[in-house]
Specification:
mainly alpha, ABC transporter involved in vitamin B12 uptake, BtuC, two-stranded antiparallel ribbon, 4 strands, 72% helix, 4% strand, globular
Length: 297
């Protein structure tokens, strides 16, 4: 039972990480109807920002986290300004191709600048400590608690922002009807910029916690987590924030618990996410919380 508890908490923490980054995908899609494929590369750059902040410039980890967030947000805003904004009135396929191009550009740029030699993510001993519960059989890592609490606080703050602030209401309006919102005087550029700031910030925070859990950095480190976070967004209903979080948690639970109950499947762990994606697309293409789309007369 104690082992089951540990695996469940690990699965929940992993699901929260997926959910955080999936929210970034959902927000960008909700505004621009764009799958931001460059987000996986932003995830990777975030980890390098943290590595150099703490391991090279010797900043305390909390200042390193702040520097990582600031640099990642700047990178996300620059990507939107340079690669997406000029194509805003172009066909959607042009935006998608641009996003894929940016992803490959950043990945190859990282290979040249940082080299392909893996680096170790900075360690935070306090978060790596294990808390012993009960008679000593029940154990939970502080990092797991930190991840879950951080996800709850960040998503609650985001929902409050969207429901109770002027910019949040404008963001929801633009996600409902881009053209009409523009005609009503909403500053579309400001809304999109805020969306990328929030999405990049969540990606950076998710990357920071991912690095603590899986502390190896390389130019391709964001590829699989980015893909799984996108799948989580689709499972929950891309464009829906609560759905993205739930999709991430479902993905984390399935991925870890199936391996726990069926150890022989451990080598196929990454396949589970794609099986779930296929099943969702077959039986509920809009996702668990996706809005039904009807054809207009």
């Amino acid at each position: 039972m104690a082992t089951l508890f540990q695996q469940f908490t690990n699965a929940l923490a992993l699901g929260c990480l997926y959910g955080l980054v999936a929210v970034g995908y959902s927000m960008v899609y909700g505004i621009l109807h764009l799958i931001n494929f460059a987000n996986s590369s932003v995830f990777m750059f975030s980890m390098y920002f943290a590595f150099y902040s703490v391991s090279v410039f010797y900043l305390p980890w909390y200042f390193g986290l702040i520097a990582m967030l600031a640099l990642t947000i700047l990178l996300g805003v620059c990507i939107e300004r340079i690669a997406y904004q000029p194509l805003r009135s172009a066909p959607r396929i042009s935006l998608t191709i641009s996003a894929i191009g940016v992803a490959y550009l950043l990945e190859n740029f990282a290979t040249v600048v940082f080299t392909a030699v893996p680096k170790s993510f900075p360690d935070i001993p306090f978060l790596q400590e294990v808390i012993v519960l009960g008679n000593g059989e029940w154990r939970i890592q502080r990092l797991v608690i930190f991840v879950v609490i951080s996800m709850v606080v960040l998503i609650a703050a985001l929902l409050f922002f969207l429901e109770h602030t002027k910019m949040g209401v404008a963001t929801r309006a633009v996600s409902k009807d881009f053209e009409t919102s523009q005609l009503m005087g909403i500053n579309i550029n400001a809304v999109i910029r805020v969306t990328f700031i929030i999405g990049s910030g969540l990606t950076a925070f998710g990357a920071f916690m991912w690095g603590l859990k899986y502390p190896q950095i390389s130019p391709t480190v964001g590829a699989m987590p980015g893909t799984k976070c996108f799948i989580a967004a689709v499972v929950g209903g891309i464009g829906n924030i609560k759905g993205a979080v739930l999709g991430g948690i479902i993905l984390g639970l399935v991925e870890v618990m199936l391996v726990y109950f069926f150890p022989g499947l451990s080598g196929y762990r990454d396949i589970f996410a794609f099986i779930i994606l296929i099943l969702i697309l077959l039986f509920k293409p809009t996702g668990l919380f996706g809005a039904k789309v009807t054809d207009k007369a």
